[in-house]
Structure to design on (558 residues):
C-alpha cells in the first residue's frame, strides 16, 4: 500500500477517536490570545509586597501544551519501554524567550501530523506487546482482553482514566484492525491511535469543578502530569498515578512530598540538563566553528569544553549545597587532562573528568568557562557584543531589540587596535548607541579571554582593557574589571538571582509571566531568597505556587 493510501486510511480510521484535527483551532486561539510578557527584567519596577493581596488566587493562563521532542522521546521510552527516539527526526520547535516549550510558539503543521503518524507506526511495530498486554487472550476472550488493554494502557498513555465513550471508540479501532488480520494487528492499530491522539500529544486540562468564573484547582491526574513533565520531562510514574487515583495530589503538603521525591530521582537530572541546554544555548556552542589557523586547539577540545559545563551544572544543582550563586563564583570546575592543560590547571592525568580547583584570579563559574566564551565569539576573534547580549538576555532577563537589517559587518582583526578599540565605534555612532551603550560595556569586561576562552593580557603587543560597566540592573549595577569580578558581583546580586527564578518560571509553565502574576512571581523570588537561593528549593516552591496548582476557568460556552 502506498504511503498516501496508508495515511488516508489511517486518518479516516482514527478520526472517530478524537485524533489530531480537533486541536488546530484551539492551538490557533491560544496563539492569538497570548499574554504580553512583563516588560524588562525582574527587580526594580515590580509590585511592592504591601500592594499584593493576601487573599485571592489569580493564576496566569494555562495554554494547551504540546509535547516537545525531548518530552515525546522520554514519554514513549517510559510508556513503551523502547530505546527508539523518533522525535529526533521531528521538526524543531520554535524558541520563544529562550525556550522551546513555550506553548504559544508550538504551532502544528501538516509536517508534524505526518511525522507523528510515521512515529506511531514505527513504535507500534516495534512494541513488545507481551510486556504491554495485561492479559493473554484465547479466541473467546480477545475482545475482553482488548478492552482491558485499552483501559490500562490508555490510562498511562493519556495520563488519566478513559471515559466509557472513549473506550468504545478505541475498541472500534481495535475491531477494525482485527478484521484486517488478527488480534495483534488490532492491538497495534489501537496503539497507533493512542499515539496520534491529542490526549497523548498534548497536555489537556480542565481542572476540578468550581464556582463559575473562579480559578479552578487542577485535578490530581493533571497535577501528576504537571509534576512529571516539569520535574522529569516525561509521563507520570506508577507512584504518581497511584497518588492521583487516591486523590493525594491536592494539598500543598502532598504536592511537596512528591516534588521532593522526584527531584531526588535520576530523571530530574535529565530535565535539569535540558533546561540548562536551552537557557545557556549549549547547542549553539556545539555548532560553533573557529578559524583553525587562529585557534588550532579549539576543535580537539570542543567536546571536552561542553562536557565541563554540563558536569559543572549537574554538580552545582544536585551535588553541592545547591546555591545559584555557585553558578557564578564556584571555586571549582571539571576537567580532563587536555582541558586542564588548556586552562593551566593541575590534577587530571587522563581523559576522565575530575573536579578541580580553579585559579581564582582567572576563573570563576560559568562566565569564565570556555564553552560560554567560545560560543559568544567570532570564528577569528572575541566578540564583546555577543557576550554582552547573552549576559543581558539570559542572566539579567532583559529583552533587546532585533538589530537592524543594515547592521555592518564586525571590524576585522588588526595589529594596530585591540578588539575593544575596534568595536567601540558602536557606542560612538548615534544610530547604534541606544542598544550598544547597554551591551558593549558589559561585553568589554570579557576581553581578558580570546575567541576560545584562553586567558590573555595582550592582543599581540597591545594591552587588553577588560574594564566594564553594568547599568540598569538593580544591585548588579556598577563598574568592574574582568569577568571574574563581574561573576562575583552577579553571585551577590539579588537582581541576577531573581532572573534565574524568572527563567525557571518560564520553563516550568511553558509561557512568559503575565502582569497579573507579578505578585505571584514576587512571592516566588522572596522564597528563593529565603532559601539562600537554593535551586532545588526553587523547583519545590514552583510546584507549590498558585500558578502551578490552579488554572483559569474554561471560557463560558457560547
Amino acid at each position: 500500500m502506498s504511503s498516501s493510501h496508508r495515511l488516508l486510511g489511517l486518518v479516516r480510521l482514527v478520526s472517530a477517536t478524537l485524533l489530531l484535527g480537533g486541536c488546530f483551532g484551539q492551538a490557533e486561539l491560544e496563539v492569538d490570545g497570548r499574554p504580553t510578557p512583563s516588560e524588562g527584567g525582574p527587580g526594580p519596577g515590580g509590585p511592592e509586597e504591601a500592594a499584593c493581596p493576601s487573599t485571592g488566587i489569580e493564576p496566569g493562563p494555562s495554554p494547551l501544551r504540546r509535547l516537545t521532542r525531548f518530552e515525546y522521546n522520554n514519554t514513549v521510552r517510559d510508556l513503551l519501554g523502547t530505546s527508539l527516539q523518533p522525535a529526533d527526526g521531528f521538526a524543531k520547535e520554535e524558541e520563544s524567550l529562550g525556550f522551546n516549550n513555550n506553548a504559544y510558539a508550538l504551532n502544528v503543521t501538516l509536517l508534524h501530523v505526518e511525522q507523528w503518524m510515521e512515529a506511531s507506526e514505527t513504535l507500534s511495530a516495534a512494541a513488545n506487546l507481551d510486556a504491554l498486554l495485561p492479559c493473554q487472550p484465547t479466541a473467546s476472550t480477545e475482545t475482553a482482553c482488548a478492552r482491558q488493554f485499552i483501559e490500562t494502557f490508555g490510562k498511562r498513555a493519556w495520563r488519566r482514566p478513559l471515559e466509557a465513550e472513549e473506550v468504545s471508540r478505541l475498541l472500534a479501532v481495535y475491531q477494525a484492525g482485527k478484521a484486517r488480520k488478527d488480534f495483534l494487528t488490532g492491538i497495534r492499530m489501537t496503539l497507533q491511535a493512542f499515539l496520534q491522539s491529542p490526549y497523548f500529544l498534548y497536555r489537556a486540562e480542565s481542572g476540578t469543578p468550581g464556582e463559575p468564573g473562579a480559578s479552578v484547582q487542577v485535578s490530581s491526574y493533571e497535577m501528576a502530569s504537571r509534576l512529571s513533565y516539569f520535574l522529569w520531562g516525561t509521563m507520570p510514574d506508577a507512584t504518581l498515578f497511584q497518588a492521583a487515583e487516591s486523590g493525594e495530589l491536592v494539598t500543598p503538603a502532598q504536592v511537596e512530598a512528591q516534588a521532593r521525591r522526584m527531584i531526588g530521582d535520576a530523571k530530574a537530572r535529565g530535565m535539569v540538563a535540558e533546561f540548562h541546554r536551552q537557557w545557556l544555548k549549549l547547542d549553539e556552542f556545539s555548532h560553533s566553528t573557529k578559524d583553525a589557523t587562529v585557534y588550532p586547539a579549539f576543535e580537539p577540545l570542543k567536546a571536552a569544553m561542553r562536557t565541563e559545563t554540563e558536569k559543572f551544572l549537574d554538580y552545582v544543582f544536585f551535588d553541592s549545597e545547591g546555591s545559584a550563586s555557585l553558578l557564578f563564583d564556584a571555586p571549582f570546575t571539571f576537567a580532563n587532562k587536555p582541558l586542564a592543560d588548556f586552562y593551566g590547571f593541575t590534577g587530571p592525568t587522563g581523559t576522565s573528568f575530575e573536579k578541580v580547583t580553579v585559579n581564582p584570579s582567572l576563573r570563576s563559574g560559568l562566565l569564565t568557562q570556555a564553552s560560554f566564551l567560545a560560543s559568544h565569539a567570532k570564528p577569528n576573534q572575541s566578540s564583546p557584543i555577543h557576550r554582552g547580549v547573552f549576559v543581558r538576555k539570559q542572566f539579567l532577563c532583559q529583552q533587546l531589540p532585533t538589530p537592524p537589517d543594515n547592521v555592518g559587518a564586525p571590524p576585522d582583526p588588526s595589529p594596530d587596535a585591540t578588539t575593544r578599540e575596534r568595536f567601540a565605534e558602536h557606542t560612538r555612532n548615534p544610530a547604534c548607541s541606544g542598544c550598544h551603550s547597554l551591551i558593549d560595556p558589559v561585553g568589554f569586561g570579557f576581553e581578558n579571554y580570546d575567541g576560545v576562552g584562553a586567558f590573555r593580557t595582550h592582543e599581540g603587543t597591545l594591552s587588553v582593557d577588560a574594564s566594564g560597566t553594568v547599568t540598569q540592573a538593580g544591585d548588579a549595577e556598577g563598574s568592574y574589571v574582568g569577568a571574574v569580578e563581574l561573576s562575583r558581583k552577579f553571585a551577590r546580586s539579588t537582581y541576577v538571582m531573581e532572573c534565574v527564578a524568572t527563567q525557571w518560571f518560564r520553563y516550568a509553565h511553558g509561557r512568559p509571566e503575565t502582569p497579573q502574576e507579578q505578585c505571584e512571581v514576587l512571592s516566588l523570588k522572596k522564597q528563593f531568597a529565603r532559601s539562600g537561593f537554593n535551586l532545588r528549593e526553587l523547583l519545590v516552591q514552583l510546584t507549590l505556587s498558585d500558578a502551578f496548582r490552579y488554572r483559569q476557568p474554561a471560557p463560558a460556552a457560547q
